[in-house]
Each structure stands twice: as structure tokens, then as C-alpha cells.
Amino acid sequence: MLFALWLAPRFLPHIGALLGIESGGHLHPSVAVTTLDGTPVRDSTLRGHVVLVNFWATWCPPCRVEMPLLQAMSKRHGAAGLVVLGLSADQAGPEAVAKFLREHGITYPVAIVGRDVETAFGGVQGYPTSVLLDRTGQVRYKVLGPLAMASLEPAVRRLLNEKAASSPK
To answer: How far apart are CA 73 and CA 41, in angstroms?
Structure first.
């Protein structure tokens, strides 16, 4: 019984994403980070795109499992308007994170962030945590754990198919 109580809050958002029941709290987080390659990423650069923000760390085994799936999702849906943005909690420094990304063939943009950025997205209870934003920058889904790609794939497709006033031309 205690296990079920512990498990339910972790899996209900995944089921919601599969079924289209939103779990994002309707936040509009402010995004202002600089990726490891020096590119600034701001709200204004993300508007009009569906954005999958993934909080992760190189020392997190489930994150390592999930990253190739994120890379594949980025390639599969990039032309349709999906942006995958990795936000690393690593404290080892940018060189260590960049080396990890090169060794694993990860090409989507990644920045190293602190708790302030996590807080802007409603907090992170564990890694990996994935947050899916619609084209207006509103959080629509938030899930914890490496099952995110399986549960968020239908949600990504739904959001990419939504027409928004700010969608790219």
C-alpha cells in the first residue's frame, strides 16, 4: 500500500501525457540560459516552438538511458517545430558536460543551470525531469523519470499539431 502511494504521483503525470491530461500547472517560466556553445536561449527565441526541457545530470543513470531517446525525438520532430533543451545540474563544469555530450552524440542545445532555473519551472524533485512547453511558452506537461519519451511522444505530436498565433511561419 505504501509503495502504491509513493508510485502514484510519479506515474500519473505520464498517464496524463499519454491521454492528453495536462500536468504542467499552466506556468509560463522565464527562460534565460546560455548553452555550452555560447548561444543565448531566451523566451523570445523559443516562442513559436514546442519546447521539451529536460533537467538531467551526467552522474544520473536514468538520464543517461533517456538521452539517446531525446536525441532521436529532436531529430524526428525538429523540422516540425520541436526544440529539445537540456538543462544540466552538473557542478563538474562545462568541459566535463561537453565531453559527455560529444561521447554520446548529443547535439541538441544544453546549458548548465542552478536551482533558480529549476524553481522557475515549478521545481525539480529528481532527475531526469522533463517539462513540455507549448508554442506560447506555457508548461503543459511535467514528468519525472526516464519514461518521459514514451509518455511525452503523443503529447509532443498533439502540441506540434496545435495552431498557435505565435507559430513560426
So the answer is: 20
Which residue in 77, 57, 41, 39 sits closest to 128, CA to CA?
57
Question: To which H or E segment does residue 73 belong?
Answer: helix 61-77
Q: pLDDT averaged over the chain?
A: 85
Could you tell me the pTM of the whole model? 0.84
> How is residue 23 annotated by DSSP?
-
Q: Would you say residue 4 has pLDDT above 60?
A: no
Out of 3.90.950.10, 3.30.390.10, 2.10.70.10, 3.40.30.10, which CATH number does the structure's domain 2-161 have?
Answer: 3.40.30.10
Instruction: Pick the range with the lowest mean pLDDT from 11-20, 73-82, 122-131.
Output: 11-20
Q: What share of the chain is helix, strand, coil (3-state, %, to 5)?
A: 45, 20, 35
Reported as a single tens digit per residue, the pLDDT across 47-90 is 999 999 999 999 999 999 999 999 999 999 999 999 999 999 99
CB 43 within 8 A of CB 149: no
d(Cα 130, Cα 168) in Å, to the nearest integer? Answer: 23
